[in-house]
Amino acid sequence: MVLLALNAGAAPAAPSSQYPNAADSDPVKLGWMVGSPPPADRILRFEDGSYFKFPAMRWSVAHFRELMPTVNISRGLQPAAPLPRALRDDIDGLEFKRLDTGETMRWRASLAANYTDGIVVLHKGRIVYERYAGALQPDGQHAAMSVTKSFIGTLAAMLVAEGKLNPERKVADYVPELAVSAFGSATVRQVMDMTTGIRFSEDYADPQAEVWAHAAAGNPLPKPKDFSGPRSYYEFLQTVQAQGQHGEAFGYRTANTDALGWIIARVSGQSVAQLLSNRIWSRLGAEQDAYMSVDATGTPFAGGGLNTGLRDLARFGEMVRNNGFFNGQQIIPAAAIADIRQGGKPADFAKAGYTLLPGWSYRNMWWITHNDHGAFAARGVHGQTLYIDPKAEMVIARYGSHPVAGNAANDPTSLPAFEALATHLMKDGN
Amino acid sequence: MVLLALNAGAAPAAPSSQYPNAADSDPVKLGWMVGSPPPADRILRFEDGSYFKFPAMRWSVAHFRELMPTVNISRGLQPAAPLPRALRDDIDGLEFKRLDTGETMRWRASLAANYTDGIVVLHKGRIVYERYAGALQPDGQHAAMSVTKSFIGTLAAMLVAEGKLNPERKVADYVPELAVSAFGSATVRQVMDMTTGIRFSEDYADPQAEVWAHAAAGNPLPKPKDFSGPRSYYEFLQTVQAQGQHGEAFGYRTANTDALGWIIARVSGQSVAQLLSNRIWSRLGAEQDAYMSVDATGTPFAGGGLNTGLRDLARFGEMVRNNGFFNGQQIIPAAAIADIRQGGKPADFAKAGYTLLPGWSYRNMWWITHNDHGAFAARGVHGQTLYIDPKAEMVIARYGSHPVAGNAANDPTSLPAFEALATHLMKDGN
Prior knowledge:
The structure is a homodimer. Chain A contains 14 helices and 15 strands. Chain A has helices spanning 27-30, 57-60, 107-113, 147-161, 171-174, 188-192, 210-218, 233-237, 255-268, 272-281, 310-321, 334-341, 346-350, 411-427; strands at 70-73, 95-97, 104-106, 116-123, 126-132, 142-143, 290-293, 306-308, 325-326, 329-330, 361-363, 366-368, 376-380, 384-389, 394-400. In chain A, a hairpin with a 3-residue loop joins strand 13 (376-380) and strand 14. The N and C termini of chain A lie far apart (49 Å).
């Protein structure tokens, strides 16, 4: 099964302590898929789910394309945009207080605690910190998981700012096939902010949860002979039923992003992968191509299928921090970034019950902290994040492979670390 | 089924005239996999073979990764090596005589006749001609088919030149698992030059041909429940039986390259994809990553799984033309290139019966013309080729999607065109 879209904020299913720690689960040391051939117990397969069991998953997050079909997101052929380096040695020792226990922890220790595969910190556009672990290298690509959603939301916000997409129109106006589903009567804005009233459970403990049908539909492998469900993301979306009212509450449901991807494809005439390449990746000075997983009809998995190099994730974050301007050009209209940064309604967000994220909101598929730095983030399961702190002029791109999917497992040792680093960087005045 | 390794020199199965011409089979015009979703009759799938039927195949050759798992061949993060441009307008009108009918044809017309997807001509290291058609763009990647073999042979020749691989030793000395197969008693040299005595028919009209078991073994899709054959390239190679004697005749059999890939992986401790990235692609100043298809155990398809950008294929050719030196460094030992260029034994080659390739030989997985220019080539089905003419200081990289697999279908309008262009370029004295 394709487990790429787990709830980015859900409570942990099990305490982290039941898993081997970062050193003991090091995918390089464990030697997945190494050898000619690899030993039988080190071969990972997509078809049987072995690729996504912990700790094997720590290899897979940096090797998805070796397990499934994917579509390229070309960087174009132009030179990479330089990311100047101004590395600092005072960050590893930075102290912060864990959100859960209140204990003091050092930055360096937080990396292993969070099973960080790679982290880049930009301050004023310069790399001040960069570390790799797990199966990730500077020239490798890592699964962004639901960080993908923020890319899709940014593309949508861009189309809105350009007048090509009207967020107040109904979804069915753009994608008539969705009229039969609960999406049809929602506005594009409700989809963009995930305030649709749809039945889409991402409770993986429940075999009836809609997320299983979603994953089965999007699975690119041949369908079993007796398979009777939807056979693509688009077919799945047409089956989504109503639950509750549109526009009343934030509910984190991956299907919204796939619906938004469909809307974007209709409006732009390009798949989200093509649009991401043409409008962002090829203008960003990315140093590597990115890619997305696809279903059996070639549709990219908008809800969670993106894979990128870590520094390129940081470049994207720096572009967003600079209100859409990067690599010598305005890549995304400033109005689109402003609309992300203003956030959604914290009251809507509060209904979703994220106790670790008080006062936050969700807008254009981004998570908005509403803290006094105006920080906002893209977030994906197992610790993927792009954290942007405008006041501190700081961007943190982190890929990880935490054994627990929900970010509630790593937020206690991530969010206060990010805030402490922001404060620390601001002290220098340089 | 995976049909990536068809005999690069076999006679055509049917006359080209039964197929729509290049314009009528234009994959962009036909709109494969375009739309959200694509129309049902424009969706291509790996599992049912629809992706490789003509004319759909013309899309697939530039989109293999969207249909199957693949492994990246990183270019690294350094700048691309420049390929200076000195475009000429006198090439389209160049005339040559077709090998088959003797009729005069113009260069420009040969491109459509050969279903060329892209062609780059370097003269003295500068791009003098460049065209794209079909589904290929400068920033896209195309299947190299059996041109892959020459990359693998070059890696092996490199390891020989570096003293890491002894071509006179038996295959079983390096890969003990192959002792049970006909490969075990062959020398590495015999594998490198395809003079092994093995039973491996690539006659696709014969359902008992070994190539089908080879393709089934390497197919990355889940095996059917009742599947009893080998389940990976390496498992298949262990089943290969003897036929004839080693060292007596050239016989173009893809299994040799997969066996060579296994030997290379054992000797280097890296897969051929990793070795290609580390030793060549990351030093070549390639402008794009390349990739290879993989089997269910992650083994790259050495016999035909490579996909590259067209200009990068030209860069590789220019490196070989310059005896291993390119992008400011000696990438492949000059001795390895010399060993390729000297060729094999034309008498061995003649036994294979390629009537269009008189006096040629095969060495280190390259095709050697032994003409008075010392030209040699990498060749793959459906028109893939890298043609190097040392005397004319010319390199031609061409990707294509000819409806007929065997190159005998396109050689009559390719080889004399290449020779005429070489002569033409030499006239200038510049």
